[in-house]
Every structure is written in structure tokens, then in C-alpha cells.
């Protein structure tokens, strides 16, 4: 284009959409593309299906996304630090079962506290195995998962813990204007963890550890402490989700959360966070979990078998990871 004042030819500035889709790092581009796809899908479904745009259905989507979404937020921080946790589902189930058991004798508040402390203890244990001993996150958290499940099944004989005090159901079905308690907790967790990542020194250290663990250690950062804190947060978020599920179901189930580890990892990856660490944000987890939840909701509305959801989820994961791998190959 030509500058009217000088008569010189200058390059045209890219439009807002092009600038939005052309960030400095490709991982951010994947996140923004997924956000646009998610928004387009929501708009399209709202126009095509009256049942989807029903306010009750939209609130139901938020609630369905809330518990796995809380787990995904904790998983997001662990993946940014360069690791992940396969035991989050087992941690959620164990926290729910312990809370249910304790509440039968000591009351619901004591049960909630016991469940949270168990999640914290499991997260710290995972962090110590990875940071202090140097174990691979896959091996250590897979082993932790097996220990938790075996112990829990042996103690409960794989039977649900019920009936629970009525306070559990009152907590699970408490709502304000249609927004349920699990949804409110999800929103608070998203805000709290996003603020922690972006406005605290610990959040900066998480990104640094995920980018270059050795260099971060040489810069004077206690890498072990950062990793242990990261897995502790993952354990607490898993426990919170398990307690919320217990409050809705009204039972403490040893079988709860069996797919949460894979779903949370898939949500983070689909949201645009590379598994290599050092990049991403809570936004990625939110985008990914809502993409999976809306997909499941749309399949239900259109009477499509839920068995197809893992296939679509796997496709999304392969596309996101494949793009990142292709980018690294071309860069090298």
C-alpha cells in the first residue's frame, strides 16, 4: 500500500485475526486456533440445535467439565514443569473414600479435611520420588497409582462407602442461579492457579524448571522444592475433584476417576500445551476440557455413540502433538 503523506510504498499491517494467529511461539498459536475452533463449535451448535443452547444444557456442560477440569488445571502446572501425574484418578478416588469414611464418625468437615490432606500427602510423595530420587514421572506416578488402587480396593473390598450424611448431598447440589457448587469451585481454582502462575515467583520458577532444569538450578532456584510443590498442587486438585464427585454421587466410590488422568493430559495437550514443558497456561487446560465436554454433549444430543469420543479425543491429541513434533523437526 502507499503512504498518502510520503508517497512511499509500505507493507500492509496484518489484520487483527492474522496477528492473533501469528504469535511468537507455535504452541501459543495452537492454543489460539483451538480457542477459535471451540468458539466456532459453540456458535454453530447453538444455531443448529435448540437443545444445545438451552441454558440448562449450557450450565450442565460447565458442571460436567468442572471436576475433570480441576484435575486438568493441576495437570497443566505439572506438565509446564516438565512432568505429569498418572495417579490423579486414583488420588481422587482415595480422597473421596477416605473423606466418606471419616465423615461417618467425625462429621463432614473432618472428612473433607482428611481427603485434602491425603491428596497433599500423595502429591508430596510423588514430588519426592521425582525430585529427590530422580525417578521418571511415568514410572513413579504409575507405581503410586498401583499402590493407591491396591490399598483402596483391599480396605474397601472394592465396595462403595454409603450411605453418607445428608450434608454431602447438600454440598454437591448447592447452587446459585443455576451455577452448581462444583462449577463455582472450578472457576475459583482456574482463577487462583492462573494468578499463581503469572503473578508469583513460584509461577516463574515452574516455567523455568520446565524450560531448563539444569540452568534453573545453576541460577540459584531450588528445583527440588519447586517440583515437590508442583506435584503437591496436583495432588490437592485431584483430591478436590474427588470430594466434589463424592458430594454429587452421595457415595465414596473406589472406582471413581478411572479415566481422569488420561482425560486431563489430553485436555492440556489439545489446549495447545507441548509435553516438553516450559510453556502453556491454565487457559490451555480450560480450552481443552471444554472442547472434550462439548464434544461429548453434542454426541449425546445427536444420539451418537459415546464410544466414538475416545477416537475423537485421540485424534485431537495426535494432531496437537504431531504439529509440535513437526515444528521441532523443521526447526532442526
Q: How would you describe the overall organization of this protein?
A:
With 332 residues, the protein is mainly alpha-helical. It has 14 helices and two strands. A two-stranded antiparallel sheet has the order 1-2. A hairpin with a 2-residue loop joins strand 1 and strand 2. The two termini are 36 Å apart.
Give a concise summary:
This protein is mainly α. It is 73% helix and 1% strand.
Discrete helix count: 14
* Euclidean distance between termini CA atoms: 36 Å
Q: Which residues sit in consecutive blocks of at least 5 with pLDDT less than 50? A: 1-13
**Secondary structure category:** mainly alpha
| Arithmetic mean pLDDT | 88
| Rough outline | globular
Beta content: under 5%
* Helical residue percent band: over 70%
| SS elements, strand count | 2
What kind of sheet is the major sheet? 2 strands, antiparallel
Amino acid at each position: 500500500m502507499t503512504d498518502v503523506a510520503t508517497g512511499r510504498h509500505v507493507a500492509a499491517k496484518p489484520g487483527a485475526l492474522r496477528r492473533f494467529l501469528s504469535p511468537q511461539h507455535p504452541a501459543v498459536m495452537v492454543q489460539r486456533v483451538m480457542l477459535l475452533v471451540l468458539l466456532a463449535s459453540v456458535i454453530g451448535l447453538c444455531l443448529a440445535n435448540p437443545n444445545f443452547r438451552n441454558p440448562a444444557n449450557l450450565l450442565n456442560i460447565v458442571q460436567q467439565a468442572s471436576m475433570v477440569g480441576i484435575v486438568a488445571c493441576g495437570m497443566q502446572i505439572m506438565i509446564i514443569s516438565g512432568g505429569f501425574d498418572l495417579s490423579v484418578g486414583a488420588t481422587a478416588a482415595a480422597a473421596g473414600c477416605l473423606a466418606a469414611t471419616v465423615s461417618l464418625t467425625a462429621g463432614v468437615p473432618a472428612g473433607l479435611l482428611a481427603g485434602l490432606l491425603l491428596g497433599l500427602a500423595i502429591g508430596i510423595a510423588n514430588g519426592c520420588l521425582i525430585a529427590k530420587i530422580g525417578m521418571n514421572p511415568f514410572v513413579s506416578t504409575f507405581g503410586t497409582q498401583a499402590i493407591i488402587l491396591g490399598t483402596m480396593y483391599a480396605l474397601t473390598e472394592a465396595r462403595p462407602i454409603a450411605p453418607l450424611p445428608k450434608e454431602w448431598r447438600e454440598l454437591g447440589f448447592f447452587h446459585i442461579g443455576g451455577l452448581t457448587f462444583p462449577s463455582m469451585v472450578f472457576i475459583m481454582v482456574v482463577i487462583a492457579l492462573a494468578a499463581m502462575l503469572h503473578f508469583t515467583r513460584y509461577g516463574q520458577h515452574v516455567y523455568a524448571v520446565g524450560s531448563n532444569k539444569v540452568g534453573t538450578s545453576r541460577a540459584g532456584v531450588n528445583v527440588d522444592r519447586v517440583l515437590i510443590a508442583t506435584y503437591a498442587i496436583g495432588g490437592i486438585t485431584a483430591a478436590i475433584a474427588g470430594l466434589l464427585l463424592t458430594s454429587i454421587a452421595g457415595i465414596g466410590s473406589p472406582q471413581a476417576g478411572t479415566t481422569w488422568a488420561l482425560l486431563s493430559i489430553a485436555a492440556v495437550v489439545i489446549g495447545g500445551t507441548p509435553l516438553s514443558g516450559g510453556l502453556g497456561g491454565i487457559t490451555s487446560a480450560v480450552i481443552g476440557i471444554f472442547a472434550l465436554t462439548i464434544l461429548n454433549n453434542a454426541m449425546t444430543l445427536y444420539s451418537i455413540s459415546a464410544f466414538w469420543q475416545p477416537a475423537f479425543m485421540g485424534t485431537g491429541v495426535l494432531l496437537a502433538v504431531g504439529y509440535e513434533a513437526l515444528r521441532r523437526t523443521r526447526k532442526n
